[in-house]
């Protein structure tokens, strides 16, 4: 967005919604939105909602660190990571509304669905925790999502390909940021090591679900549109092993928890959504 567009969004009389961090009404403006003719539109919409839900809920958890991070610089960094993910959410939700033919907008998907309608992985749901929890969760999430986005760049769906091409640059920074903190804390003091290891131990039961394919993911992977998450495991393990070794942290040996793509969520999701959706539901016709 140009400076002029930002200024107009802040001062003009149009329908720009700068409160969401953007000054444009259509997140997919300028992107080819043609759906490949042999692709099931319902599957494509469901897939975009899954990936968008992952980003939205993780973004919300990250914004909770504003005023809670160790220092101002880290608060800004985490806010920017959250905004990156929110931008991905907007484009994915817009694609879902176009693909399924309903024309639903990003606000409809974010604010007017019940918890059981969300298809995110459970990794993004647990409460904020301490900084060790944040570092562990962000490291796992960004490593997994970067591997996913890299494989979406050649997607036959032009919108997913465009989102992925932009997203890999953002998420590469997210992963690097989390890895640097993991090494700094894991190989730091006894207390920082203990807290980071504890965060990793709490996150690890939710790792296995990241690689368990949903039937929609399997169908779209076969058609060259989506990615089979099972194919991400080798890269994920290689990156985590390298970071954990440098951080003197151990890979947890804990049983996996059943997972969220099929609508089985943790008890933390409902109150998170109640907070996130409260203003929009109280004023459903409001515009910014």
TrEMBL record:
Sequence intervals crossing the membrane: none
Domain of life from the UniProt record: Bacteria
InterPro entries associated with the record: Aromatic_CoA_ox/epox, Ferritin-like, Ferritin-like_SF, PaaA_PaaC, PaaC
Coiled coil: none
Signal peptide: none
SUPFAM superfamilies named among the record's database cross-references: Ferritin-like
Pfam families listed in its UniProt record: PaaA_PaaC
Name assigned to this protein: Phenylacetate-CoA oxygenase subunit PaaC
């Amino acid at each position: 967005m140009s400076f002029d567009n930002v200024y107009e969004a802040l001062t003009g009389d149009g329908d720009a919604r700068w409160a969401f961090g953007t000054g444009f009404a259509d997140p997919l403006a300028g992107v080819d939105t043609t759906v490949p003719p042999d692709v099931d539109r319902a599957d494509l919409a469901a897939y975009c909602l899954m990936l968008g839900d992952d980003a939205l809920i993780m973004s919300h958890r990250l914004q909770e660190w504003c005023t809670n991070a160790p220092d101002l610089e880290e608060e800004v960094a985490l806010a920017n990571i959250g905004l990156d993910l929110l931008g991905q959410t907007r484009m994915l939700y817009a694609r879902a509304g176009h693909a399924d033919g309903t024309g639903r907008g990003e606000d409809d998907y974010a604010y007017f669905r019940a918890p059981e309608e969300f298809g995110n992985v459970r990794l993004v749901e647990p409460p904020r925790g301490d900084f060790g929890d944040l570092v562990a969760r962000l490291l796992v999430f960004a490593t997994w999502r970067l591997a996913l986005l890299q494989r979406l760049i050649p997607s036959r769906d032009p919108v997913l390909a465009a989102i992925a091409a932009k997203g890999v640059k953002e998420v590469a920074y997210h992963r690097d940021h989390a890895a640097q903190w993991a090494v700094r804390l894991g190989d730091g003091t006894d207390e920082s090591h203990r807290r980071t290891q504890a965060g990793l131990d709490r996150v690890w039961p939710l790792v296995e679900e990241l690689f368990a394919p949903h039937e929609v993911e399997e169908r779209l992977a076969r058609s060259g549109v989506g990615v089979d998450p099972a194919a991400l495991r080798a890269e994920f393990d290689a990156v985590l092993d390298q970071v954990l070794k440098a951080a003197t942290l151990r890979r947890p040996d804990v049983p996996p928890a059943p997972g969220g793509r099929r609508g089985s969520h943790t008890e933390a999701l409902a109150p998170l959504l109640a907070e996130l959706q409260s203003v929009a539901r109280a004023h459903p016709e409001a515009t910014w």
